[in-house]
Amino acid sequence: xxxxxxxxxxxxxxxxxxxxxxxxxxxxxxxxxxxxxxxxxxxxxxxxxxxxxxxxxxxxxxxxxxxxxxxxxxxxxxxxxxxxxxxxxxxxxxxxxxxxxxxxxxxxxxxxxxxxxxxxxxxxxxxxxxxxxxxxxxxxxxxxxxxxxxxxxxxxxxxxxxxxxxxxxxxxxxxxxxxxxxxxxxxxxxxxxxxxxxxxxxxxxxxxxxxxxxxxxxxxxxxxxxxxxxxxxxxxxxxxxxxxxxxxxxxxxxxxxxxxxxxxxxxxxxxxxxxxxxxxxxxxxxxxxxxxxxxxxxxxxxxxxxxxxxxxxxxxxxxxxxxxxxxxxxxxxxxxxxxxxxxxxxxxxxxxxxxxxxxxxxxxxxxxxxxxxxxxxxxxxxxxxxxxxxxxxxxxxxxxxxxxxxxxxxxxxxxxxxxxxxxxxxxx
Length: 428
Hints:
Blueprint: H1 2-9, E1 13-15, E2 18-20, H2 25-56, H3 59-128, H4 134-139, H5 144-218, H6 221-242, H7 247-268, H8 274-295, E3 313-316, E4 326-329, E5 336-338, E6 343-350, E7 357-362, E8 367-374, E9 384-385, E10 390-393, E11 404-411, E12 419-420
Antiparallel strand pairs: 1-2, 3-4, 4-11, 5-10, 6-7, 6-9, 7-8, 8-11, 11-12
Helix pairs in contact: 1-2, 2-6, 3-5, 3-6, 7-8
């Protein structure tokens, strides 16, 4: 609990993207304890891996092929999930397009109905004047003035007839095109729905195949050991990628600084083209503003930490199975995952089919929270987030259940970046 108090009370000063914190004696003692605990965890994990390797012996190499098969099926399953999501989005777009086209056709039908009344009026007018053709009409004129008036009136009547006919033709052509577009959209929608049905079948088959492979592995002690070994090795690789979660942010800041410098250098070459010069200067200013925002000190913590979703249940603790994260179960599959505290997104990484996406959020006090097993994240590198901001949704990995979050916490100060037990921060 001393760590939670230290984190909330610490006043950080950022140097670039890495937090450097001046620690008091109690805070330093807490950090040293966390570092020692994490090093012990890594040592215990290494011993466990050695014991598993001895227990497996020669069967380990054979079972590695089953692990490779598992991972291959896992990748296929992830690809089918993405295809399904893309098809669902496509169908939604087609439904919206179809609705808009149906509204267009209905509006054109209303115009045609109104034009039918106008045409009926014209026909009635012609009927009343039947038998009076142009020659007889002009012949009855008694004066030259009357002749000119009648000629003008008949000309207008002919022009009106032509306008109505032309407008009718245009509306009918527009309706024909809209109806053809609607028919094409319906065919495309039917094809997309058929593709979705096929994708659903393929997805179920891939899920079943993965379950079969996992069941076969779990059926023997050796299969269970090889999976445990693989997961521990994956855990070590994952921690290695999280060992410097600020690297992405640092690279983005460097890219923006280089973009600013290049834009300013280019602007100097356009002294004769003021408009182009101003545009390049605006680009340089925008890059500088973005980089400055990413290096600005984070606001000190003023509130405690919240859990990543309501109804969260702790199902595995830090250190269990030599893992360095909390296993947190949500009340439903694919639940929204929220930032536990205000901060800045320092990494967004796809870890592969087994783990899905990872999002890291840098907080004040040198703390970084990490969220694993996400689908496509809703935040980008460098985004500022508030406490409770939705980062993404669960279910990105194939080996982790879609209602389970792997939640890490890392405390960075100087060259030390141990993973710490997040349970006290979240009230467990």
